[in-house]
Specification:
The chain is an alpha+beta fold. Helices cover about 45% and strands about 10% of the residues. The protein has twelve helices and five strands. Strands 2-1-5-4-3 form a five-stranded antiparallel β-sheet. About 30% of the residues are buried.
Length: about 280
């Protein structure tokens, strides 16, 4: 345990957090930047005296539970969380669960691709960011509850709209198998996460197809390089599918692009104009 480095790290992380970021009033007499020691202690559910001793390099070895509470209270990134554990002499275990926080630069990237449908999925295949063209091609994800944004659940359990499975995509079966194999690897990386466990249990119980794939223990799916969406308004849209791994967040960005000069490119351009409106609904 490196007490001096741990003390300095905790102090630096505390001072960078504005009170309003965690729902606390700034107050007129706040002389130090960021949070006070007692506020961090309150957020971490530990005593103010113990936290003060940590910052004074006088505290005994903190438990893993205390380190986890401090990481949450100080809003540490995954890299900072690992660093905290190493300073405390307790090598970090696996992350508590898949990250759902998308970097601002990735969200900006999606918005700068007007002719590309793009979305970000978490390690459990939950859609956590998307651009306007992805919403037009597939669905307005903002109108869905979080549960219905999970593509593994949708692939195996529906709902199917207008008789179309998973947005009418041509490789729905292949996608379902690939997503299930990715989920098996995810479950191994996050063995203690209740959301991952609950998703796997739900799919095993409700889908014989998922249970069959799960029992095969396959974790190395082949990528799909192209697919066709059967859109209810513009018809078939053939797209190239490319993926970008965001390794530090355990996330993946999918890009769907049409080949230039094809009817599918024209369909994508039409969707970029129409958006999520329904052209078949009378005004």
């Amino acid at each position: 345990m490196n007490r001096q480095e741990l003390a300095g790290f905790l102090r630096s992380r505390r001072e960078r957090i504005a009170p309003d970021e965690v729902g606390l009033p700034a107050g007129p007499r706040r002389r130090t930047p960021g949070l006070r020691r007692e506020e961090v202690a309150q957020l971490a559910f530990i005593s103010t005296e113990y936290y003060a001793r940590l910052e004074q390099a006088r505290a005994p070895h903190p438990s893993r539970e205390v380190l986890a509470q401090l990481a949450r209270a100080l809003r540490l990134s995954d890299a900072e969380r690992d660093h905290l554990h190493h300073l405390a002499g307790a090598p970090p275990g696996p992350p508590p669960g898949p990250s759902r926080e998308v970097r601002r630069s990735i969200i900006d990237l999606l918005d700068r691709l007007p002719e590309t449908a793009a979305l970000v999925v978490s390690a459990t295949y939950e859609v956590i960011a998307w651009n306007a063209l992805a919403a037009a091609l597939m669905e307005d994800f903002s109108a869905l509850p979080r549960r219905d944004r999970n593509l593994v659940r949708r692939a195996f359990l529906g709902p199917h709209r207008d008789g179309r499975r998973l947005y009418g995509v041509s490789d729905a079966d292949t996608f379902a198998r690939t997503a299930a194999q990715h989920l098996r690897a995810t479950a191994a990386r996050y063995p203690g996460d209740p959301e991952v466990s609950a998703l796997v249990d739900e799919l095993l119980t409700a889908s014989e197809d998922f249970a069959h794939i799960w029992a095969a223990h396959e974790v190395s799916p082949r990528p799909t390089l192209c697919k066709t969406f059967h859109h209810p308004l513009v018809g078939p849209v053939a797209v190239n599918c490319d993926a970008l791994d965001i390794t530090d967040r355990d996330q993946r960005v999918f890009f769907y692009t049409a080949t230039p000069g094809t009817p599918s490119e024209q369909a994508m351009r039409l969707l970029s104009v129409v958006g999520t409106q329904r052209m078949d609904v009378p005004g």
